[in-house]
Amino acid sequence: MPRLAANLSMMFTEHPFMDRFAAAADAGFQGVEYLFPYEQDPDDIADALKSHGLIQVLFNLPPGNWEAGERGLACLPGRESAFRESVATALAYAERLGCRQLHMMAGACPARTDPAIIEMTYLANLNYAATQARAQGVTILIEPINPIDMPGYFLRSASQAAELIDRVQRVAGDAGVENVALQLDLYHRQMLEGRIADAIDQYLPRSAHVQIAGVPGRHEPNAEGEVNWDWVLQRLDDRGYQGWVGCEYRPARDTDSGLGWTQRWLSGAEGNA
């Protein structure tokens, strides 16, 4: 059965960040994810996880200069040194937090740059990140993001991501980068091209993590939007998915009042833990 993980960058924002771990545990979540932990001391986060019996499921590599518009470094020619530093930083946090999955944000394509060079840079950086992560037992995830939420983002579709995973694995040859997988965000899939059922059937075997959010608005994945998310979660269950489903949404009001949709899945996960 899928297990729900609370995204603490978007959920429980009524509380200071370090208090959100307790709020997630009180709501019944057993796992958490968030965008970036780097403003916090990793020891403090590790203590919060242990105190509340939570698993650190996922977080992102440092994205570069977020305020300046950077959304990841992996596809940016000339930023390889900064990218490698970001890998080292993320792996240090992952080791302290017991996290076994890291999302490598691709970045926005730089203007007036040959697309072939952008792609070659991305593949080289993906290979580097996976090679560094392998010794630590960490999987590097890559995720397509829709152009409405993130204009110009390099990864635009699950098919593109799957092709790039295949290519980096072929290039690595005997060295192997088997620790690369798809992060299947079904909110972005719906925004990009729809056909969520097809995406699950085609890409779930290549995926190590799933994320959801309501469409439109990126609010609760409940019955009020254009997608029947309970049906989607059931389809994941029917396909044998037992991994985490990140709840990467912005509550329409306060977080707790919108959690009714989670009860079937949280109680089921608890019973199967």
Kindly describe this structure.
This protein is an alpha/beta fold and 273 residues long. The protein has one domain: TIM Barrel, CATH 3.20.20. Helix content is 38%, strand content 14%. Strands 1-2-3-4-5-6-7-8 form an 8-stranded parallel barrel, surrounded by 7 helices. Helix 3 links the parallel strand 3 (55-60) and strand 4. Helix 3 (80-97) runs parallel beside helix 4 and helix 4 (115-134) packs across helix 5 (158-172). The longest helix has 20 residues, at 115-134. The protein is globular. The protein starts with a strand and ends with a helix.
Low-pLDDT runs: none
Distance between the termini: 10 Å
What is the CATH architecture annotation? Alpha-Beta Barrel
Order of helices and strands: EHEHEHEHEHEHHEHEH
Counting structural domains, the number is: 1
Features:
273 residues; alpha/beta; TIM Barrel; 8-stranded parallel barrel; 8 strands; 14% strand; globular
Give a quick rundown of the structure.
With 273 residues, this protein is of the alpha/beta class. It has helices spanning 20-26, 42-51, 80-97, 115-134, 158-172, 186-192, 196-203, 229-238, 263-271; strands spanning 3-7, 31-33, 55-60, 101-103, 139-142, 180-185, 207-212, 244-247. The protein contains nine helices and eight strands.
Task: Show the helix and strand layout.
Blueprint: E1 3-7, H1 20-26, E2 31-33, H2 42-51, E3 55-60, H3 80-97, E4 101-103, H4 115-134, E5 139-142, H5 158-172, E6 180-185, H6 186-192, H7 196-203, E7 207-212, H8 229-238, E8 244-247, H9 263-271
Parallel strand pairs: 1-2, 1-8, 2-3, 3-4, 4-5, 5-6, 6-7, 7-8
Helix pairs in contact: 3-4, 4-5
